Amino acid sequence: MAGLLHKAKDWAHSHEGRKLIRYTMVSGISTIVSFTVLFVWFGVLKVWTQVPSTIFANAVATIPSYYLNRSWAWGKSGRSHLTREIIPFWGMSALGIGVSIIGAKVAKIISVNHHLPHWEATALLLFANVASFGIFWVLKLLVFNKLFHFELEEFDEHLTEEEQEAASKG
Q: Which of the pair, 156 or 98, is modelled with greater confidence?
């Protein structure tokens, strides 16, 4: 067990490990943003029904996701490249929103068929949205890892001194 923990610690301090941990944290932040906007927009304010509320909440969450992933998870700075970064990111985000739309439609059908009160319909919609994020997360990870590929030396420039020292020892 100690050997497994040591391997996990070593991996977490590797370039790929730090990148995956940061990507995961950005996904968590994006999920919280989407969850909060959806809860307020659909659950509290009752502005729209499930599907338009889901589209809106996920579109809002995509904005911080792009900037956090680009700068923090993949260490990119400067102007974004339209065809290599912006279009692929928003294309993948649109696909993710598409998955969320399916979840929202299923949640709406269940809510209507079972005559759920609004608070239960909201809970079901929030669950469907988080489940949709989970389903789509792995695919995004694989694509964005290739999309924002960089040389390890370039990544070193974005590490703290402590991280650089640990990387040089490992």
A: 98
Residues 10-53: tens digit of each pLDDT: 777 787 778 778 878 988 999 999 999 999 999 999 999 999 99
Check: CB of residue 155 under 8 Å from CB of residue 19: yes
Count of CA atoms in the C-beta half-sphere (13 A) of 128 = 29
Instruction: Look at the alpha carbons of 23, 21, 140, 78 in this order and tell me if their dihedral is positive or negative.
Output: positive
Candidates 55, 54, 59; CA nearest to 39 is 54
167 has a pLDDT exceeding 70: no
Q: What is the pTM of this model?
A: 0.75
Helix then strand then coil, % of the chain, to nearest 5 = 85, 0, 15
Q: Tally Cβ neighbours within 10 Å of residue 152.
A: 10
Chain segment 107-135, per-residue pLDDT in tens: 999 999 999 999 999 999 999 999 998 88
Instruction: Using only the alpha carbons of the chain, give its radius of gyration.
Output: 19
Angle between helices 50-68 and 87-113 (to 10 degrees): 150
Taking each helix axis from N to C end, the angle separating 87-113 and 118-147, rounded to the nearest 10 degrees, works out to 160
